[in-house]
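Hi R.,

Quick one: here's the Type-1 angiotensin II receptor-associated protein sequence you asked about.
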Amino acid sequence: MVNAPSVSLKVVVLAHFILSVWASMVGSPFLGASYIYMNAFILAFGVWALICPDTTEPVITFMLLNLISIIMDIIFLGVLTPYAHSIFETQVSPLKGAYRFSLGMAIVNLILKPFSSFILYRLYQDRGGQYSGGEFGIPGVSAFGGSSGSAHGSNYENIDQASPAQIETASPHSMVDKSPYDP
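And here's the predicted structure, written out as tokens:
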């Protein structure tokens, strides 16, 4: 029997793979090798998440890279589309239809990335991952606006105020039996 999280992860990886391949059909004049390499690198983490279904690291890494790639896709499309438009739309080009299709698939891929990131976050939670502000090694940052300076609900131990169980007192009879240190 196939479980739903595995199917949704496979759908996310497969959809982004197909859309990335279709978006890079025209090749170098449009999005270039950087778009291809970025998406291949990100999809490798998706494949890693499929291979290791018990760990949370590949899913959270895939999700974070997917979120970063949203900004990267906007930059790629904003910078490279005017150049590709001047090549394919203003001149007579046999690749005009392929350019338009690739541009459309790149935009669809960009639109789907926030939704797939949400699905990946839910998969991360299903695998047992919990997000807290201090999870990524940022000291003093608590999850979602909690007070980081309060001692309530944290593992902070105030060394100025010792608990009664930790107070040690010297007893006079324990020092009588010991001889002083003579060098």
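Helices lie at 4-23, 32-51, 57-88, 96-126, 172-176.

Cheers,
M.
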